[in-house]
């Protein structure tokens, strides 16, 4: 499959596994899983095409279960699911990529999940830069994750390495220019 087809199929799969399963006639279980056979039928894919989309997705957004008979999005859901990820102690710092236009709201309200279940944080500054660059000129916030955890905030790490937390109050990061 060419790159355009792969991107189109990946976006459709992301929509149905993260945000709107009903749009494809699918129902996620409580942990976000859906039978592969149902996805194939709903999206008009064959198994090899689905496996290629999962393998080639540069963000590793999708995962098969251990039996290969179910699939889910690794994180980023706007529909309620419990991924069953254990709480983990985060590294000392994590990173969040955004754009300058969002800094005013972030300074006032902190990082909020918006229409998703969690705030997404990156283990590396490079990854956060890439995330922020999707919407314009990126700005990277350094989040004092270990301090947050010591203060009782809970962290999880998704199957593809994205760190998840309910929110990041402003006191746990510095904004560019020394604000925060």
TrEMBL record:
Keyword Electron transport attached: no
Keywords on record: NAD, Transferase
Residues passing through the membrane, by range: none
GO molecular function: NAD+ poly-ADP-ribosyltransferase activity; tRNA 2'-phosphotransferase activity
Pfam families attached to this UniProt entry: PTS_2-RNA (PF01885)
Keyword Ion transport applies: no
Domain of life (superkingdom): Bacteria
Enzyme Commission identifier(s): 2.7.1.-
GO biological process: tRNA splicing, via endonucleolytic cleavage and ligation
PANTHER family in alphabetical order: PUTATIVE PHOSPHOTRANSFERASE, TRNA 2'-PHOSPHOTRANSFERASE 1
HAMAP family: KptA
Its job: Removes the 2'-phosphate from RNA via an intermediate in which the phosphate is ADP-ribosylated by NAD followed by a presumed transesterification to release the RNA and generate ADP-ribose 1''-2''-cyclic phosphate (APPR>P). May function as an ADP-ribosylase.
The family this protein is said to belong to: Belongs to the KptA/TPT1 family.
Designated name of the protein: Probable RNA 2'-phosphotransferase
Organism: Actinokineospora spheciospongiae
């Amino acid at each position: 499959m060419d790159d355009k087809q792969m991107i189109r199929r990946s976006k459709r799969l992301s929509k149905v596994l993260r945000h709107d399963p009903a749009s494809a006639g699918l129902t996620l279980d409580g942990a976000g899983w859906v039978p592969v056979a149902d996805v194939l039928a709903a999206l008009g894919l064959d198994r090899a095409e689905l496996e290629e989309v999962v393998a080639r997705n540069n963000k590793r957004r999708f995962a098969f279960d251990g039996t290969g008979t179910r699939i889910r999005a690794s994180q980023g859901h706007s529909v309620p699911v419990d991924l069953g990820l254990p709480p983990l102690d985060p590294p000392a710092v994590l990173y969040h990529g955004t754009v300058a236009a969002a800094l005013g709201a972030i300074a006032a309200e902190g990082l909020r999940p918006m229409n998703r279940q969690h705030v997404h944080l990156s283990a590396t500054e490079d990854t956060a830069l890439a995330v922020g660059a999707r919407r314009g000129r990126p700005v990277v916030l350094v989040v004092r994750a270990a301090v947050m955890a010591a203060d009782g905030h809970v962290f999880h790490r998704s199957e593809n390495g994205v760190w998840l937390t309910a929110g990041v109050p402003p006191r746990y990061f510095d904004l560019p220019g020394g604000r925060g």
